[in-house]
Amino acid sequence: MSGYKVGKLSKKNIYVNVPGSKSITNRALMIAALGKGVSHISGIQKSDDSGHFIDCLIKLGFSVEDKGDTVVIEGNDGMIPNKKAQIYTGSAGTAARFLTAMLAMSDGEYRIDAAEQMQNRPMKDLISALESCGAVFEFHNKPYSLPFTVKGMGNFGYGKELCFDINIDKSSQYLSALMMAAPMTHKRIVIRLTGNRKAKSYVVITEKVMKEFGTDIIHEKEDEYIIEAGASYTGCRYHCEPDVSAACYFYAMAAACGISAVVYGVHSDSMQGDIKFLDVLSDMGCMIEETDEGICVTGPEKLKGIAVNMSDFSDQALTLSAIAPFTDTGVTITGVGHIRNQESDRIMSMYNELGRMGIKCTAHDDGITIEPGMPKPAEIQTYNDHRVAMSYAVTGLNAEGIVINDPGCCSKTFPDYFKVLDELCK
Question: How far from 199 is each of 46, 170, 310, CA to CA, in Å?
Fold first, then answer.
């Protein structure tokens, strides 16, 4: 598929299924592999990111069986079966960062490689923290970047403590990685945050998944995370929630087009931080209703403008930018400076592609201001960033002549996104 010309929605009420949460899927996969016994993980996201994660676990020697909607993993009680291996994480930040911590806390030696996109994303703060506790890294291209070889610290034994000081301003995945891998050491682990970032919605997901597999996090201070010596995971049956990040594109469609949208299985008690996007839509004039099937969003005749700090649900910055032109007074997004270091520089992606559609914008260090206006026909460049492709397809549903180049990049998290869109436009 070279380019996707966005059509018009043919329905006033849409009902869709979305894949399982990527964030929950890859956390559950890692924790299950480190657990005791067998885990059955259902509702997983079938995407490039989860596929790379599963492939890495197999190359590390874990028994992983794919049974359609369910993956069965035989845990190895905190040990990695193969003491030497080469793995490839693709462009998956969760796989690259989570597995880096896992391998660094092992007693083996491993080479980790990744797609060019992931090679250019930040890793230094995580690697530095792991080096401080005994892991050894050899960089094959440029310092503190993939690809590299890591020799695990392998210093096991009860009764001792390891302390990690970590700055998560560029990614909260660093903290999640250390937390999940901590039981491998059998030591008391203390993780102290040194930066300024307070957005931790994904860290909350990590804590909840760890708890489901039997390990609690202790908070003696606000920015301190403790895992006690002897903590371990126990295999279980675990179901992944639908991906709220994916659901938000359909909620945005309802907002932009003045229709109703229900995403099956997404409810207000979701553990995912992106559920906060619904509060934004409510403030913009949408009606939000909890139903047995899932949350229903109904768009107004005209969306209200808004200024919002999205630091704790920044994956939806692009989604909000996609419907910003249809508001009465425009949109200002703040608190998202860290998204410059994701699959693309997402602030510049918003600025460039909205500008390509004739929408006036002002980019800031930590966000963007978007003025209202009718988007003009344009070919959207996606920068191999799945969220750029999916977001501006939403814009195209309420504007003429929007073409999404390289729509296949959505395979990273939602391979069938444009097939679903086709069905809604029939």
Answer: 27, 11, 9
370 and 399 housed in the same domain: yes
DSSP assignment string, 248-305: HHHHHHHHHHT-EEEETT--TT-S-GGGGHHHHHHHTT-EEEE-SSSEEEE--SSBPP
Summarize pLDDT for 81-103 with one digit per residue, the tens.
Answer: 999 999 999 999 999 999 999 99
Catalytic site residue from 312, 315, 385, 406: 315
Residue-by-residue DSSP string for 86-123: EEE-TT-HHHHHHHHHHHHTSSSEEEEE--HHHHTS--
94 and 123 fall within a common domain: yes
Domain membership of residue 232 (yes or no) is no
Separation between Cα atoms, residue 208 and residue 205, nearest integer Å: 5
Q: What is the CATH number of the domain that holds 120?
A: 3.65.10.10
Could you tell me which residues come within 8 angstroms of residue 16 by beta carbon, excluding any fewer than 6 positions away? 250, 261, 262, 263, 264, 420, 424
Active site residue 165: no
Distances in whole angstroms, Cα of residue 181 to Cα of each of 94, 187, 191, 227, 403: 13, 11, 12, 10, 43
Tell me the residue range of the domain where 386 lies: 3-18+243-424
Strands 70-74 and 109-113: unpaired
- Tens digits of residue pLDDT in 343-373: 999 999 999 999 999 999 999 999 999 999 9
My answer on whether 138 and 34 are in the same domain is: yes
